[in-house]
Write a structure and sequence with these properties.
Layout lengths: L2 H9 L2 E6 L5 E4 L2 H6 L10 H6 L3 H16 L9 E6 L5 E10 L5 E7 L1 H38 L3 H7 L2 E7 L7 E8 L2 E9 L3 H21 L5 H16 L10 E10 L4 E7 L3 E5 L2 E5 L6 E2 L11 E4 L5 E5 L7 E2 L4 E2 L1 H11 L5 H16 L8 E7 L1
Antiparallel strand pairs: 1-2, 1-5, 3-4, 4-5, 6-18, 7-8, 8-9, 9-10, 9-13, 10-14, 11-12, 11-15, 15-18, 16-17
Helix pairs in contact: 5-7, 7-8
Length: 385
């Protein structure tokens, strides 16, 4: 070859290798010195196979491929393939090969150095593996947290045994929930609450665990039984729990619908913090309006919580619920389900057993949202006297 051609071939970031019909290498471009560290003369004959291959199996594999290509009349449909070569210093170089037939039944291979690209690909693969493992660890942790959260929830069977009939529809937006339900029976009194904590997912779940501990502290340990007094105590305890390290009020809190059933007096006393209670009696709704203050928040505002007492009648049906069901987007116009539809739905299900109501509400919820994502945690407690 001319000196000009040799100079060009030496500067190329590609290898050119010519293999004769006997499988011997009869030409290697000068660029082999720069790319692989070998003098072209070292790679002639069997040198190409012996010096640049990783092991005997790989050497046999590529030689077999080469002989198959030599025996073919045409390589028009031959696909590029990648091979790992060893350099004179023992380093790795990835080469992308394109082969074609040359004169006298020779095989011409043009190899492009793609080592940098392969390193980048391998780094990305490693990062993806690390991310997959990280995501798996997170999912496993959240699943474990879900089991912990479920452990603090009351046994639904105990709720059902305390009333004529009952159900609990509990459907977190994510694996864990910022909503939870509370049940505690002390002799002739039954305490029931639906609680909606700030946020959902992991932050909401952490708040729910804090809130549940405070609710137990106030009702079980301190023995406070009046619903409005329970809310006052909750508000104070939550403020203390969330502001131990600084004097700045946080924006964390919870909405609560709380009812205390007195089986001896045959009454229910309700008090709510931004969450109402519904009573379905004789096919008509009585709505117990909540106090317009949350538990938490508004640290510098004087709050007022009042209770309302009502005598119970047989077949009274009470509903305690968070806002996730009514706030769900769906329907043909992608609007919120809203409180009006919720009441109509409960009214239409009034003749059903409570377990049937739970299934009916769940079906209606899924039918409403269709492909829309769930926007919030859902918690509904239905109790029949």
């Amino acid at each position: 070859m001319s000196l000009v051609t040799e100079s060009i071939l030496e500067k190329l970031n590609s290898l050119i290798v010519v293999v004769n019909k006997f499988g011997k290498v009869e030409y290697v471009s000068p660029s082999a010195k720069r790319i692989l560290g070998f003098e072209p003369e070292q790679l002639m004959g069997e040198g190409w196979w012996d010096l640049t291959r990783i092991d005997d199996d790989e050497r046999a594999d590529i030689k077999a491929l080469t002989f198959r290509q030599i025996q073919q009349d045409s390589l028009a449909e031959a696909l590029p393939y990648e091979r790992l070569l060893k350099t004179a210093t023992g380093a790795d170089r990835w080469i992308l090969w394109n082969t074609s037939k040359g004169p006298l039944n020779t095989l011409v291979g043009i190899g492009h150095d793609i080592t940098d690209r392969k390193k980048t690909e391998q780094q990305l693969l490693q990062k993806n593996k690390e991310l997959e493992q990280h995501n798996k660890d997170m999912v496993d942790s959240i699943q474990y947290a879900s089991r912990i959260q479920e452990a603090i929830l009351p046994d639904v069977q105990k709720i059902k045994s305390a009333f004529k009939d009952a159900f609990v529809l509990y459907q977190p937006k994510d694996v864990v929930s910022g909503d939870y339900y509370f049940f505690y029976q002390k002799q002739n009194k039954i305490f029931v609450a639906a609680v909606d904590c700030t946020g959902h997912g992991v932050p909401g779940a952490l708040m729910s665990i804090i809130a549940n501990g405070i609710l137990k502290e106030v009702i079980i340990k301190k023995g406070i039984e009046e619903p409005s007094e329970i809310l006052y105590a909750l508000d104070e305890e939550l403020y203390l729990a969330l502001n131990k390290q600084n004097n700045e009020a946080t924006n964390d809190g919870m909405d609560v619908a709380l009812g205390v059933f007195d089986l001896e007096k045959n009454t229910i006393t309700y008090s709510g913090a931004f969450r109402p209670m519904l009573l379905l009696r004789d096919n008509e709704f009585i709505e117990f309006e909540p106090n317009r203050f949350p538990i938490g928040f508004y640290g510098d505002v004087e709050k007022t919580f009042v209770s309302r007492e009502l005598e119970l009648k047989e077949d009274d049906t009470f509903y305690f619920f968070t806002d996730g069901y009514c706030d769900q987007f769906g329907g043909e116009q992608k609007k919120k389900f809203n409180r009006k539809r919720f009441r109509e739905l409960l009214l239409s299900a009034n003749s059903m057993e409570m377990e049937e109501q739970e299934s009916f509400l769940q079906y209606a919820f899924l039918n409403w949202r269709q492909e829309e994502p769930q926007v919030d945690d859902v918690c509904i407690i239905g109790l029949r006297i």
